[in-house]
Structure formats: structure tokens, C-alpha cells
Amino acid sequence: MAKNSKKPNIPDLNKTVSEIQNLVFQPGYLYSLLTIALHDLFLPIESYVDINWWDRISYQELGYLFGVLIIKPLQIGAYPSQNDVQKQIDDTYRLLKQMHDYYSHTAFDGMIKSALKAKKDTGEIPPTKERFYSTPEAIIESIFYDDSGAYDFQYWESASMRYARDDKWMKDHFGFSIQDTVELSKSLKELSEQKHQNHPKFKSIEDFNDWILNVFSFKTSDISNLTGAKRKVLDKLSVIPGHCNKSFNLISDFNELEVKPIVKLSDSSFILPISFDLARSVAESPFYWIKEADETYFLSNATANRGKYTEEATFELLEKVFGTSNVYIDAQVHRKKGEGIKKKGKYHTDIDVLALTGNKAIIVQAKSKKLTLPARQGNLEKLGNDFKSAVQDAYEQGLRARSEILSGNATLTQKDGTKIKLTETLNEVYIITLTTDNYPALAFQVHNFLQKQDSDPFPIAINLYDLDLLTQYLPDPFDFLFYVNQRISLAPIIFGSTEIACLGYHLTQKLHIDPQNKPDKLHIAQDFGQLIDDDVMRQRYGSEEDQKESKIRKRWKNESFERLVTQIKSSGVPGLTDAVFFLYSLSSETADKLVEMMETTKTKSNIDHQPHTVAMPLDYGKGGITYV
């Protein structure tokens, strides 16, 4: 350590938590917290691309504060003065930063201590990945402060399909359907947004406080078509302040408000602090309601239904990209007769979802494992066990299938035994491990926990919502495969905290590195994920003009180059996938020069009716392109 360097001042966690609790229980704090939520959650469309999220409070932090708030009954009508509001808001941001500083500084300090200890014991400093999770705080920080993992509309869209097989059971036992829960969640968000847009002129701070409470609260009479079934949903998703979260203290503790995001004030009056949490609960909580209500049905039906949903949802997403005839559920790998195999066609392993194009294949191995509470609370052993169940086992299953396929000593069949006919010999098989739900800090865990041989490829480890976005932004099979190829081949040196950040980088910069100027590491900032946020919001909720202003849709294009690529894609020539990958790997400047060179050569031939050739070296100086 440098002589003049200073060790970061690590805040006292217990003192910080105590200060937060004292702040939250101050009279009027409810209104100050709702003011923060309004400022940090209700954002205009044009703000998503450039917003600095570090200056805002995240869903998770707001959820923590509201979780503390409901430990006691809410003080409705205890209005804070304007000065009190500003002070409470300033103190909130200060204390939350102090909280984050505690976890991040403690995590970093743990890495340094681990390195020094290893240096003393062995004479060498181990790689960062072996020191990253040196403390419980490092685990908690990476999980709690991670990205939200999905959009609310993705939760709504997935819920109906997810519980389709359980819907009758839910109606019989709970008195409502999954569609009732989705519709209620949507209507409450819409109601809150309408109230936010229709605000009056405020004559006093009390008027403002009444209005802001109204934005986040609702009465049963506000909900159009509130059926008996939806009323039961409302009760199922509600907590009563003063009667919950009695043991809630730290950000890693279980927060009842995450699974029951509606705060019940009376039989007819409620508050919905964070509508996003309601959408997430609608998608995730019914699985656990079933478990609590009927363990037998849960084990014999609901668990299997969840696995079937994950495979079917994956199939439908990939089907949109690769076509129905090129995607298979429960494909099987059979070994041919050879060493160690006495009988030809012996079954070896299966593939949850298989997608094919040209000489490339994608294997998706899906797991419905979630991150457990002990892992979220910093238990390294539990975190490793969860990772093994969610990713490592799926990866190893994918590796077995990949090895057999590429060896040429296997055949592929559908589940019913029908042989899958390949149009070309496969020369690469990519592995995607997929989780049903959002799995926080997954990118960090892959780099820290994944067990693999140096010669084995990395997988892409994502959740189902990530796959949904990948298929939306890469709807062409060659585009999709090229992205997967680049992600996997560059995995040792490229790190992005989320898959969406990597996708945003690829769509604007291209995931390609010049071999002659290869960095040791390339960290992709979450800012690139904001490009996806911006486009999603514009395309889904914006005007026609808003949609045109998306930065992702203003990226480089060369229509002549695109025609060239399209011609190659449709040629049917064996190995064309590799040719397309080659063209995709060119920089935009080289692609422009290539097209210009080709058009100039064609013009010469048209003029003098003679053959012409031209050669152009590549960007990175190894080989070139010859056009005849």
C-alpha cells in the first residue's frame, strides 16, 4: 500500500441502521418517502438514456425503507413542514449512501485482507475472482444492489403462461385465477399513473402531501370491475402496518413487503408504494402460495408445471428467431457404436431446448432454482450450493451434450425418437444456462464460481426475461448466433454486470475486439443497459416521435452491406454461417470500404465487360478479402 494512501472510512452498520429507523419513524416521514418515490420512480421517457441512477434511490432501497416504515402503524395525516420534508429527504439519501458505503468498503477491505493473507502464506496473490466473495458483505452488496432483472410488463406477460396448468387449482383453493392477479396489478399501476398526471395547483404543503398520498393510495371504489375474485387477490397481496416485519432490520433480511407489496390501511383503503414489486410478486408468489396451501399438490404437480413452463417459454422465444422446424424441446443425444458403447444408439443425455441454424447449434439447459434467503444474507456455502443447482449442473449437462455432438459420435432425436436431420455438420455448439426467475448478481457468480476446464467454453448464464429481450433485439438467427458466439468467445475478458448491458454494448459498439489490440479486461458499464431501457420505454409507451429518437435505432447502417449479408444468408451454401460471422466481425469503416470496393469493381466490369479483381487487407492485419 502506498505510504500516503488512506484506508476507506467504513461506516458503522449498527449506527447507520439505527439512524435510518429513527428517521423513518419520525412524524411525517411517510410523505417525505412518497416524495422520494415520486421523484425517483415516475420518470419521463426521455430521461432513461442519460439518467444517473447513482443519484436516485433504487427499487430495492425504497423497498427497504417502506419495509422499515410498516413495522409500526402509519401516521396518516401527520404532515411534515416543507423544511422537515427537505431535511428528511436529505437525510435519507445520506444514510442510504452510508449504508451502501459500509457494504462496498467492507467487501473491498475483505478482498485486500484476503490478498495479503495469501501473499503471506503462499507468496502469491490469488486472482480477484478467488477473493471477490471474501466477506458476507461482498455477497450481500452484489445481490441487493444489482439490477432489477426484468420489466414489470414481462412479469405480467409471463404469469398467465407460467401458471396455466395450476389455474384450476388456484380457482378451487384461492377463489381467483392468475389472470385476476395480473389484471389487478395492471389496473393499480394505471390508476397511480393517472393520478400522477392529473395533479392540481397546490396552495399549501398540506395540499401537496394530500395529493402525493393520493398518487400512491387507492380505495376499493377506485378499481373498476372489482370482482369478488380480485378482492381476494387484494387481500392475498396485502400487509397490515404494525403487524408485519417484526424481525426486519438489515437489507438482507426477509421483507414481507416484497411478497405482499400492498399496504392495507382499512378494508377499503390501501397504499401501493412500488407497483414494480407488485408485478414481480404476481409472477413469483403464487408458486409459494401453492406450497403453503397444499404440499402434496406442490410436490406432485406445481413443481413439474414450473419446469414445463420454463422449457415451453424458452421454446416459444427461440421459435420466433430460428423457426418452428429448427427448435426442439427435450431433444436427446444418442451415442453411436464405439468405444465403451456396446449398442448403437445408446441414450446419453438430453437437451431442454435445442436450436439449429446452418453449422451452429444452441443448447439451453433450464433450471427453476432461485437464490435462497441464506445466500442473500451472505452465506458463502449456501451461495455456492445455489449456484451449483441453478447454473453449474445445467452447464455440465450442456457440456456433455456438446462434447458428444461435436465428436461426430452421436445422433440427435426428438423425445418421441424421431431423428433430427441436420442440414450441415455442426462445428460449434453454444451453451445457455437459463433460470426461470431473476437470479441476482449472476454475472459475478459465473466468474467466481463456475468450474470448468480451460479448454471448455463459457456458457451464457441468463434468466428467462433476458432471453425475451435478446430475441426481441436479435430476431434474425444469424444475428442471434453471432451475439452468442461473441459473448462466449470473449467471456474471459469481457465483463458486464448484466446481460442487458452486454446487449446494449453489442447493438451500438459490436462485441468484437481487434486481435492486435486485445485488452486484458473490458468492463461494460451499465450505461449500455440504459440504452435498452430507453428503447423499451420509447417503443412501448412513447409517441411515434419518441420511438424514432431511440439511440439504439440510430446506430450505423449500410444498406448495400446489409444486402450483401442477406444474399449470403439465402445462398444455401454450406458454411454460410461462418461467412456471415466473418462479415459481422468487420468494423463499420471496413464494411463501408468493402461495399465501395465491390461496387467500383462491378462498375468497371460493366463498362469494359472484362473480369476484375481487387483485394483489401483486414482491420487487424491478418489476411484480407479478395473480390472477383
Explained architecture:
The protein is of the alpha/beta class. Helix content is 53%, strand content 11%. It has 24 helices and 14 strands. It has helices at 13-24, 29-41, 59-69, 82-122, 136-144, 152-162, 167-174, 178-197, 205-216, 228-236, 256-259, 275-293, 295-322, 373-376, 380-407, 442-449, 464-473, 477-489, 499-508, 527-541, 544-548, 559-569, 576-584, 588-608, and strands at residues 217-219, 238-239, 262-264, 269-271, 327-335, 346-357, 360-367, 410-413, 428-435, 460-463, 494-496, 522-524, 614-617, 624-627. The strands form four sheets. It has a six-stranded mixed beta sheet, with helices on both faces. A four-stranded mixed beta sheet has the order 1-4-3-2. Strands 11-12 form a two-stranded parallel ribbon. Helix 8 runs antiparallel to helix 12 (275-293). The longest helix is centred in the first third of the chain and has 41 residues, at 82-122. It is globular. The N and C termini lie far apart (61 Å). Mean pLDDT is 90; it is low at 1-5 and 338-343.
